Amino acid sequence: MTDLNLQPTSRVALSFLKDRVTHFKIGIIANEEWVTRYIDQDFHKQFRMMKSTYWVLVDTVRPYYPVKCQRGDAPLVTVEKAVLMTLCYLGKHLPLSDIGDRFAVAQSTVFKEARTIIHILCDLKDTFIVWPKKSECVVLSRQFEARAGFPGVIGAIDGCHIEVIPPANQQSSYADRKCNYSITLQGISTAKTIFTNVSIGTPGSGNDARVLKYSSVYRTIMRDGVESMFFNDNYHLIGDKAYPNRMWCMAPFKDFGNLTPRQRTYNYHHSSTRIVIEHTFGLMKGRWKRLMKVNTEIAKVSDIVLAICVLHNFCYLHNDEVTQKMIRDKRHMPNQHVPNNYADEASKMQGAEKRNRIVCLF
Q1: Alpha carbon 74 to chain centroid distance?
Q2: How far is Cα 135 from Cα 165, in angstroms, rounded to an integer?
Q3: First-to-last CA distance in the chain?
């Protein structure tokens, strides 16, 4: 029977079937050959990145992946399969047993291989999470200024909470202000939503000022001076009211109902610029669902979060962006005001003077 002998409705149905995209479905995965059979859309959905990005990641990890010896009849887990299992673990909030079933390996194998890849990613943090060089600051500040006209910004800083299972004897330390148990991730990002610094692991009861105080950025400033991180007086971070207003960090004016029109305009441009860090957290949480709640022992949580931060940058550096379908849970913990009692008065005055100069630009 040819198409000419079909009824009109049958012709439409047959034409529709011909035009449909065939989605490869799998039951139990025993090897890596099936990867090439996924269309990009489905691979991205399953493993949170494009196939081309995955292969670059495999080549990046391969030199650090341990050489294994054959034991018995069980096939060795290849680096390709180890990376896939890790992406599945980090990208979806599935139990290890479900991942093991998908890849036809034991739950303990998933745990072991994921830990191996996570450790490798953590070791690569200085390759993919990099503080800007002096020569890069002009471009970074122009990218931020293009958003809302706020000058001199080379990074937006904020903190978010990652839910965890707290140690039984330290639950109060990990209880945040929303009555969840969490640790804090402090991030600094560019206008292109790429992290340039992260600080991970402070128990959720701590505020952003405390997290900042113990971060590598703050310690470097205190030890080597502001110029060691910001090069000259023109550059600074931008943070919300939880952060101190200093030469190196511009905060908004606290609004008690007495702000001048220029100060309110400053706050508007400030907020429109600073929001990029919230977008960064939202994009990362949208892609890597493990961040919804990291239900493993607390000592391993920081490594998992750091590995995800590395993967976030890795994907964006390879133009592998988050799809809108990924972003369904944009929970982000807004900051609360905290007293800035750890900086001296001279630093406060310098920050106030610099902020007033910026106010005059609007």
Answers
A1: 36
A2: 43
A3: 75
Q: How far apart are CA 143 and CA 141, in angstroms?
A: 5
Query: How would you list the strands of the sheet with 249-250, edge to edge?
Result: 195-203, 182-189, 153-163, 236-238, 249-250
Q: Give the model confidence (pLDDT) of 243-302 as tens digits.
A: 999 999 999 999 998 999 999 999 999 999 999 999 999 999 999 999 999 999 998 999
**Contact at 8 Å (CB) between 153 and 122?**
no
pLDDT digits 0-9 by tens, 116-163: 999 999 999 999 999 999 999 999 999 999 999 999 999 999 999 999
Q: Is 31 helix (H, G, I), strand (E, B) or coil?
A: coil
Q: Classify each residue of 79-113 as buried b or exposed e, where b means 16 or more C-beta atoms within 10 Å of its C-beta.
A: bbbbbbbbbbbbbbebebeebbbbbebeeebbbeb
In the 8-state DSSP scheme, what is residue 159?
A: E
Per the CB < 8 A criterion, the answer to whether 328 and 235 are in contact is no
DSSP-assigned beta bridge partners for residue 250: 238
Sign of CA dihedral 48, 53, 57, 58: positive
The pair phi, psi for residue 159, each rounded to 5°, is: -125, 150
- Type and span of the H or E element at 279: helix 276-287
The radius of gyration computed from the CA coordinates of the chain, to the nearest angstrom, equals: 24
Q: Is 72 left (phi over 0), alpha (psi -120 to 50) or beta?
A: left
List the Cα angle 111/83/33 in 5-degree steps. 115
Rounded to the nearest 5 percent, the helix, strand and coil shares of the chain are 50, 10, 35
Backbone torsions φ then ψ of 155, nearest 5 degrees: -175, 140
Q: Could you tell me which of 154, 150, 153, 137 has the C-alpha nearest to residue 358?
A: 150
